[in-house]
Design goal:
- The chain is an alpha/beta fold.
- It has a single domain (5-115, 164-302), classed as Carbamate kinase (3-Layer(aba) Sandwich), CATH 3.40.1160.10.
- Helix content is 32%, strand content 23%.
- It has 8 helices and 17 strands.
- Strands 3-9-2-1-12-16-17-15 form an 8-stranded mixed beta sheet, with helices on both faces.
- The protein is globular.
- The model has no long low-confidence stretch (mean pLDDT 92).
Length: 303
């Protein structure tokens, strides 16, 4: 019997929670806790591919490079380089966290480049949050916006749409052979096509959209987007807040058009879910990791 393939996108809280400093111990504990919740899918025989975010990590990497430049004269690396750094370090955490639940399966990590268009309009309107939170807007010349959850100011960078994932055929092959594969970390290293090949560009690709593209390309059966709430809500944090159990793609589009989901928060996740289901997926589940063992968990987006 052919096993189902599930694409799983780890949210930011799978790595770093609000109020934490981002120490190795904190991140390792968070990752291990999230990985443990995947036991339910592994025991049910699913083939698994994991994507993850890296917003705080890549932001901190940029800060370290800048501090090294100012203090010691070391060259500061561009954002695509920092994305590659954090892909490797976070993949290491996930590999370590999966060891106790992998049931003998091998865990394989692939540093992944993801192609975007050089003329994507996103480059004219930075929206993707990266790095730490600030109580007041910094004045270092970068673009900052207030976090929609009221946690402070964060740097924003362009977030172009992913159009292709390098070596996704190898990722699928490894997964269908029974390996657990970590890929498109942080949405992938953003690259554009040039006469000399793929070249990195300063941007951050939304990890949920990149994971959705990976899921569609691999013909995954299910797509799980793990976040810090058990379900998707309308009228979020208002007296008439309502949790959504099952919604169709058409209904999800209506709610997006109504502005029910915040940009930089739930809106990209809902768009990723729509992209996956319209691309042939059976269902996308948006939930928190602790709910994976519950058959009625999360919000399910269906055709």
């Amino acid at each position: 019997m052919t096993k189902k393939l599930a694409m799983i996108a780890f949210g930011g809280n799978a790595l770093l929670r609000a109020g934490e400093k981002g120490t190795f111990r904190e991140q390792m504990e968070n990752v291990s806790r999230t990985c443990a919740q995947l036991r339910h899918l592994i025991e049910r025989g699913y083939n698994i591919v994991i994507g993850h975010g890296n917003g705080p990590q890549v932001g901190n990497a940029l800060l370290r490079h800048e501090a090294g430049r100012k203090e010691f004269g070391l060259p500061a690396m561009p954002m695509d380089f920092c994305g590659a750094e954090t892909q490797g370090s976070i993949a290491y955490l996930i590999e370590t966290g999966m060891e106790s639940v992998a049931s003998g399966r091998k865990v394989v990590s692939i540093v992944t480049r993801v192609e975007v268009k050089a003329d994507d309009p996103a480059f004219m309107n930075p929206t993707k949050f990266v790095g730490p939170y600030y109580k007041e807007r910094p004045t270092d010349g970068a673009v900052y916006k207030e976090d929609p959850r009221g946690l402070g100011w964060r740097k924003v960078v362009p977030s172009p749409k992913p159009i292709g994932i390098n070596n996704i055929d190898i990722v699928e092959k490894l997964s269908r052979e029974g390996n657990i594969v970590v890929t498109v970390g942080g949405g992938g290293i953003p690259v554009v096509r040039t006469p000399d090949g793929l070249r990195g560009i300063e941007a951050v690709i939304d990890k949920d959209l990149a994971s959705a593209l990976a899921a569609v390309t691999m013909r995954a059966d299910e797509f799980y987007i793990l976040t810090d709430v058990p379900k998707v809500y309308i009228n979020f944090r208002k007296p008439n807040q309502e949790a959504l159990d099952v919604i169709t793609v058409a209904r999800a589009k209506e709610l997006l058009a109504q502005g029910q989901f915040a940009e930089g928060s739930m809106a990209p996740k809902v768009r990723a879910a729509i992209m996956f289901v319209e691309g042939g997926g059976k269902q996308c589940i948006i939930t928190e990791a602790g709910e994976l063992g519950n058959p009625a968990s999360g919000t399910r987006i269906i055709p």
